[in-house]
Design brief:
This protein is an alpha+beta fold and about 160 residues long. It has a domain at about 25-115. It is built from four helices and five strands, in the order αβααββββα. Strands 1, 2, 3, 4 and 5 form a five-stranded antiparallel sheet that branches. β4 and β5 (about 100-110) form a beta hairpin. The model has no long low-confidence stretch (mean pLDDT about 80). This is Outer membrane protein assembly factor BamE.
Amino acid sequence: MTSIRPLTLAGLLALGLTVTGCAGYREGRGYIIDPQLSQAVSVGTDNKASVEKTLGRPTFTGQFNDNEWYYVSRTTSTYAFRAPKVIRQDVLRIRFDAAGNVTAVDRTGKEQIASIDPYNKTTPTLGRRKSFFEEFFGNIGSVGGVGTGAGGAGAPGQ
């Protein structure tokens, strides 16, 4: 019986190390939004310079309009080798008019995250499907043919 206890102890130790190796963790990314500072930005009184002094440079600006600034913060949780799951997301959007004055301050959360489901890992296309041999031998005779240029009989200047 004394030889079983060291084996049991070694097995429990190995199991414990395996379980702790698969522990989950949380990760925060992006801008850390301070509620007091973000509440300090007000419509009509602030401009781009004052917002930049208060909050700093934005995470990114609008793709089609430089007068929209976005401050994005995201917290994810991951367990072992699984894909990260979004726990919390905060987006602060500040809009400016042409003169650079704040016109709107909007806040959204993780409800704005889009879930995209790929379709069978292939992209459907219109047209007919070709077999392997049609793909492989389909261009024989078309390279350098009449009227195609690149050394063909109908190339200009010959």
